Amino acid sequence: MTTLNTFSGSAASLSQFDPQALPVSAAQAIVLQWVTPLAGSERVPLREALARVLAVDVISPIDVPAHDNSAMDGYAFDGAALAAEAQDGALALTIAGKAFAGHPYTGGVTPGACVRIMTGAPMPAGCDTVVPQERVKRVEPTHAGESGSIRFAAREVAPGANRRRKGEDLARGGVALRAGRELRASDIGLLASLGLVEVEVKPRLRVAFFSTGDELRSPGEPLDAGCIYDSNRYTLGAMLRRLNVEAIDLGMVRDEPDALAATLKQAAASADVVLTSGGVSVGEADFTRTQLQTLGDVTFWGLAMRPGRPLAFGRIWSGGRAGVGRPALLFGLPGNPVATMVSFYQIVRPALIAMSGATPPPVPLIPARCEAPIKKRAGRTEFQRGVAERDARGQWCVTPTGSQSSGALSTMSEANCFIVLAHESTDLDAGDAVDVMLFDGLV
Questions:
Q1: Where in the chain is the domain with CATH 3.40.980.10?
Q2: Average pLDDT over residues 188-199
């Protein structure tokens, strides 16, 4: 069995901690040391690349924009004319023609002339400045064949104003997006603006998951005495879909060592990561931890965290013992529904992001005023459910959502944040400052 003492570098300094009550920060550090990003890459159509992780830097094949163009609707002219303004501060220019996006003006622009131009249209030769249309007074021609003119206060525009330069956004040969980036909607648009139809991304991480327990029944089945519906498997499946991994649902496994061992080996053979819920405590029917020790390595099996104390982490092999067959990381999550979710977000989620080839972004903590007293014991990190909102002065405040039992899934649905109570903190009074972790963007 692997212990904390076997780790090198920073993890070795964590060996003074009890692997049955590891601080959250220590557990997070150890897990990320075990993570190895997936090797290889694949090319996918741009329309299918959302939330995928770039495998290589994207180099811009063109200048963006491809030419100097107007940043707004107005009139393009030579900014040097601003120095020759009339004594009353107004500048008068004759309209030589029009320029539209996709239909540039190709004629000449003589001194004292301008071109009516629309946003995105290429700047006509000899023009470097655009005056917005709302700042000019237009004078229509009085005779057929004559050009109209404009008049505006010269002080309201500077030479070179409202012109976007060629390559201003991206220069040809420059790095548009770095490898390791999880592609967002704006990135898809950026890649399309470069004319790309495919992009090279990391393989999608494969995550197998299942629930354990003789008491579990699937939704839609009748409930026998002493049984409950299996909510954890649905919760895990939903959380995995938010991460755009390939989720492999292996169903429910009874509290039988042989059945559990067979499912764990099947999971290791088909996935990069295995998630279980239930069976990691110290009860007579809690076999996940025991099987993890048999099939592979155990690093830790308990956290100084509430909810979510019983959590086993290590590695298993599809061949039935360490070093035989195909390896997979395993997270044995607690069986209580809220504990499963807290463990996933605080420990599992960063690891899955890192294995996908991206850098797990830190989740922001927002200072807030607690509206109710909170009981807290030093020596563990707590993640209580709360509702955060801004008060009349625009300051953040948070109220706990009733029962903080690890089985009260309804209060998780009511909440919009975790109230994060640090490892060494103790009881809080109403009005005390706390940190909150908003669900928006996380769950």
A1: 4-39+203-355
A2: 95
CATH topology classification for 366-438? Beta-clip (2.40.340)
Using 50, 70 and 90 to split pLDDT, how confident is the model at 13? very low
Residue 4: the pLDDT is 33
210, 279 in Cβ contact below 8 A? no
Residue 3 has pLDDT above 60, yes or no: no
- pLDDT of amino acid 299: 87
One-letter amino acid identity for 400? Answer: P
Are the C-beta atoms of 51 and 244 separated by less than 8 Å?
A: yes
What sign does the dihedral 432-437-439-443 (CA atoms) show? negative
| Dist. CA 345–CA 220, nearest whole Å | 28
3-state secondary structure 256-317: CHHHHHHHHHHHHHHCCEEEEECCCCCCCCCCHHHHHHHHEEEEECCECEECCCCCEEEEEE
- According to CATH, the superfamily of the domain at 4-39+203-355 is MoaB/Mog-like domain (3.40.980.10)
For residues 338 and 352, what is the distance between their CA atoms, to the nearest angstrom? 19
CATH architecture of the domain with range 43-64+172-201: Alpha-Beta Complex (3.90)
C-beta neighbour count of 233 within 10 angstroms: 22
What tens digit of pLDDT does each residue of 66-118 get? 999 999 999 999 999 998 755 568 899 999 999 999 999 999 899 999 999 99
Burial class (CB in 10 A: 0-12, 13-18, 19+), 180: middle
AA letter at 156 = E
Helix, strand or coil for residue 347? Answer: helix
Provide the whole-model pTM.
Answer: 0.83
CATH 2.120.10.30 fits 69-164, yes or no: no
